[in-house]
Amino acid sequence: MLMADLSHRRLGLAVTACLVGLAVSWLTLSPLGLIGPVVAAFLYARGRVVRPVYVMLAAGLGGALLAAVLDAGMREAALAWAAFCALSLSLGPIFSGRMAERLDADAVRAAKSVERLTGIAWATDAAGAFLYVTPSVLAFLGLTLEDFNAPLANKEFGWKRAIHPDDYEVAAALWRRCLQTGEHYSVDSRMLRPTGGYGWTRSTGQPLRDGNGVITGWYGTVIDTEIAPPRNELAADDPGVSAADMTASDTLPPMAEVHPHDRATVEQARARAFFHGIPQVSSFRKLQPDGSYQWVEFRVEPKYGTSVAVDPAVARQDERWTTASELGETGEAVRAALAIENLYGGAWAMDASGQFTYATPTAQTSIAMALEDLNLLLDGKPFIEGGRQGWQRGVHPDDSEEAAATLRHALKTGEHWNFEYRVLRANGAYVWHRAAARPTRDGQGRITGWYGVTVDIDAYKRTEAALRERERQLQQLIDTVPALIWSTSADGRPIYVNKPFIEVTGATLEEMIGPDGLPSLSVIHPDDREAARRAIRHSFTTGEPYSQRYRQARADGSYRWTDTRAQPLRDEAGTILRWYGVSTDIHDMVTTQEALSESERFLRQLVETLPAMIDCADPKGEPIFRSQRLREFLGYDLEALDGSGKSRLAGTLDAGIHPDEVADVKERYAHALATGEPYARRHRLRRFDGEYRWVETRAAPMRDAEGAIVQWNVVCLDIDGEVRAQEKLLAAQESLARASQAASLAELSASIAHEVNQPLSAILSSSDACRRWLMTEPPNLERAQKTLERIIISANSASDVVKRVRALFKRAEDKRDCVTLGRVIVETGDLLAEEAARRGIRFDIDSDDIVLQVPFDRVQIQQVLINLMRNGMDAMEAVAGDKLLGVRVRKADGMMRIEVSDRGAGIEFPDKIFEPFFSTKEQGMGMGLAICRSIVEAHGGQLWAETNEPRGTTFIFTLPAEAEA
Questions:
Q1: Which of 122, 147, 340, 563 could form a disulfide with 143 if both were Cys (CB 3.0 to 4.6 A apart)?
Q2: The model's pTM
Q3: 414-421: long-range contacts at Cβ-Cβ below 8 A with a sequence spacing of 24 or more?
C-alpha cells in the first residue's frame, strides 16, 4: 500500500504538470505549452498506452503540414502545430526510454535487495526478458544474460538448460501464464547443482507495477528445499490437465472480487503458505452483487505437505494494524521490505536505532502487535543502548535476550543479522521463526535503515525434531538388529559401521580403512581375502551389487562364516551416492549344510551300495530318482524317457516289463497309487542286454505330517537265480514224487499179485482137476463137486485180498462240516499263487462267501480244486499271450456250480479223461480226474468238462447247496 501511495503522488505531480501546460497553451494561444503533458505521458505510460500517443502525434503532424500547404491563412498556426507534433515525436523515445531504464532499474534493485537476504535473485522486464541474475549463478552455469534470453528450438526458454528435463514443461507453462495474467509465480522444480546433479528448489516471482497497475517488470528468488514435494493430486499424464493447473493448490477468488487495498494481503497469504509450508488464514473485503464489500475469511494451503501436524497462521485484516507517520531516512529500507514482502508474504523495516518504520499488516495482526507496540520502550531506555523493546514481549523468554543482543550488535556494527527464535502468536502459541536483516546505506556508506524478513519455520523445526527422533529410532534399530551394517562413499571409502559390527569383529571404522582409502578387509580370513577384494573392487567399478561369502574374524580371534551383500544408492540421474552393506552370520547354517551334505553323501553311498535297485517316484508314480545299480541294470537314465510322448512311468513299464505281465503290473500299480496301499509283485524285467530276469518289486508311500503322500519309495530285488533254483527244486520234487509213486505202485502191485496169486493158482489147478474128473468115463461127480467147492473157497480168498487192499485206501471215517465254499476257493488260489506267478498265469476268482447247508469234506474238495486248477495251468504252459485261469461259483437249481476255465489248447478225448489210467500227459498216471470224479460223486455231485470258444476248457462240478428233506 505504501508503494502504491508513492506512485499515486508521482501521478498527481504529472497530472498537475499537464493541467498547467494546458492552461499556458490556452492563454498564449500556442501549442508549445502542451509539451509538458506529452512528456508526462511518455514518462508514466508504457507499452500499449504509449502507442496511441504516437499515432495521434503522427496524424497531427500530417494534418498540420497539409493545412499549411492548402490554406495560406492558416499556414502560421499550422506550422506551429506541426513543430509541436514533430518536437513531441522526437522527445517521446527519449523520455520513454529513460522511463523504461528507470523501471528496469527498479526491478533489478528489488532483486538485489532480495539477493542480500536469500543469496540468489533474478529480475526480468515486463515481457520476461532477464535483466539480472545473481552473478555466481551465471558463472556456475557458464551462461550469460543473453543465453538466458536466447530462445531455443520450439520457442523454449534459454534457461531450460538449468532445469531438470522432467520439470521444465510445468515451470515454463506456469511462467508463460504468469506473464500473461500477472499472477504470483511459484513452482517447485529440480535445478542443476554445482555437483553436477539435480536438487529440488522453490522458485518464486512477483510483478512490479506502475501507478496505473501496468506491469513494469518481475523479480524473484530461488531457494534450496532439498526434499521433493509430494505428487499433486492432478496426474501429470492426464491429457485434460495443463501444466499450469498442476501448480494450483488453493481456491482463491478472482482478484476482481477482492478490494483493491486487500489484494496485496491475498497475494502475501499465498506467498507465506508457499514459502513457510503452513496454512494461512486471513480475511479480505469481497465484492458483493450490490456493489458493496463485505469481510470474508479465507484459507490458503501450502502446495506441499509436511510429515507433522502444524496449526495455521491466523491474521485477520479487520484487526488493528498501523503504519508509520514518517519514514525518515528509511525510505529505501521500506522499499526493499516491500519488494521482499511480495515474495515471502511478510517483511519489515526499521531505522538505524532499531525503531520499526514498517511491518507487513499481516505480521502485525498475526502477533497482535501494531508498530507502536513493537517500538514501545519497556524500561524507558533506547533499545540500541541496551533497553528492552516492545517486540521482545512477543518472543519466548528463553530466546528474548539473545535475540535482542544479536540484533543490537548488528545495529551497532552493520553486520548482517540472522537469528532463529520462538514468536508468540495471537492465539497464545509459540512458533519458530527465522529472521534476517540487512542494512541500507547512503552515498557516504552511512546506515540509513534496516530491512528484513521473518519466515515461519515451525513446520521445519517440528519436521526436523521428528526426523531426529526417527533418526534416533533408526540408529537404535541399526544398533540392535542382529546384523553387521556398514556403508562406504561412492568411491568405496568406508564411512560408517554400526555398533554390533564393532562389538562382534573388534574392528573400528578407522581400522576398516586401508592405505588406499578402500576397505582394508582386515576382518576377513586371509584365505578368503583376495577373492573378496576382487569382488568388491569389481562392484565399485561397475556399480553391480556385491555378494560374497567368507570367514569373518570375531573379537575373540575365531572366524565364522558370513554372508555379505551391498547395494549402491543412486540419485535420480543414476549416479551412485553411497554403498550400503550388511554382513549376516551364517556360520551355523554353513556348518549345518556341511553336515547335511555329509549325511546326504553317506545316504547316497548307502543307497548305491545296497544289494538292491532303488527307485523314487512322485505322488503320481512318476520316477524322479533311480540308483546307479538300477540305471546300469536297465541300461538308460531317466532323461532318456523324456520326449518320447509317454510319461516316465508308462515308458518304464512298457520298455521293461515282460509283455505277458505288463498289463497286470500296470493294473496293480495303478491301484496302489490310487489307494495308497503298498505294492508287491514278482515279474520279469528286461535287462540292458535284452534278457528278462525275475525280480521282486515292492513300493511303499512316504507321507508328511498330515498323512498326504509326498513320495513313493520302490525297491527292486533281482531274484532270477532264486526263481530258477526254485523251479529246479520243484521239478526235482515232482520227479521224486513220481518215482516214489511208481515204486509204491510197484510194491502195491507185487503185494496184490502175491496175495491174489495163491487163490488164483488154487482156482486154476482145481478147475483143471474138475475138468479131468468130469471127462472120465463115467464122470466122477463126487470128486468134481469137491473140486468145485475148493474153487469157491479160493475165489472167496481172492475177494478177501481185494477187500483188504481197498480198505488200506479207504478212510475209516469222513470229516465233513458246513464251511464257506468261497473261502476254500480263495485259500486254494493262495496255495497255487506262487506257482501261477512263476508260470506267468493270472487268477480271476469270482466267489461269494456262501456257506453250504450240506456238510462236505473241505480237504477232499480242495484236492479236487487243486487238481483241476493245476491241470488248467499245465494246459496253458505252451500257450502264448494272456494266460488267465478263471474260477466262478454260481447257484442254480439247488446246486452249487463251480467252474474252472483255462485258455489252453483244449481236450482231445473229453469222454475218456475220467477213466482210470487214461492220461494225455507224457508222465501222467491217469488217476487224478478219476479220483476227482469219485470224490465229487461221493458228495452227491457231478464232474464234467466243456470246450471254450475260441479255445480252452472249462471243468464243471456241482455240490448240493441244501440238504434233502
A1: 147
A2: 0.45
A3: 414/439, 414/447, 416/116, 417/450, 417/452, 420/457, 421/395, 421/396
